[in-house]
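job 3f2a | input accepted
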Amino acid sequence: MVIDRERGGMDADHDGSSGRGDSGSVHEDVRPQAVSPGPAGPDAPAPEAEAPEAVPDPPGAGVGIAGLSFGYQVVAALALSLIGLLACAQVAMVFLHVAPSNTLTKQHGKTVDDWIYPEFEQNWKLFAPNPLQQNIAVHVRAEVAGADGRRTTDWINLTDGDADAIRGNLFPSHVNQNELRRGWDFYVNSHDDRNKPNGLRGDLSERYIRRIAMLRLDGVDLGGTVERIQMRSASSLITPPSWSTEKADTRPTYRELPWWPVNPDDLPAPRDAARAEEGDQ
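job 3f2a | predicted structure (281 res):
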């Protein structure tokens, strides 16, 4: 009995000292204690699985050809194929219509025209102007007054000189490429078939082409003084390719211009005078 009472007092003292802090006051432990779950046994109920949220279908899902029945899908596929074929045929017919004359248009030109002109005319060209199908050379001859009297030179091909300067030249001059060719086009477009001016630019084109000719003859020894010149064009069709059935007469046709007297203004200025004039400017 005495031993039990002493043990009980010691237990009481131990319980009291466990509650004292540094200041000697007694604190109660009021923190919540975590309750650990018990071990899952074979008889413990399984936790309920959360059901996934239902995702709504995006708007328009199932709409289109894929959303149609098989029969309607076949009809839609046939309709799209027909539209594609018609579009390709239209593009091909328009291209053949606006393209320059070729083997296909010569064989099926009537079919192309019937397609392009069902009711209304469509008058426009893809290539404007059409590529040239002929070679045009510009010639000149001169009436020269020399010590033995007057004489007329042979025809001199001015275009050949430009062609020689262009062939094999990686950077040909625009003068050789365009001056004579455009000068002749300028004259032809401002005159009729009888070489009569058809507008106010007729006299200007005559003086321009005459000065080009005199500039080209400046470096040629003709044996006298040039008093008059005459120009002409030699046009010949390009030989058709071997695979074409087209027949073309490649013999040249000529268009001769009247004789023109040479004025001092038509002569090229001397190099020294031209340099002096450029220095004054």
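job 3f2a | The chain has a mean pLDDT of 77.
job 3f2a | closed
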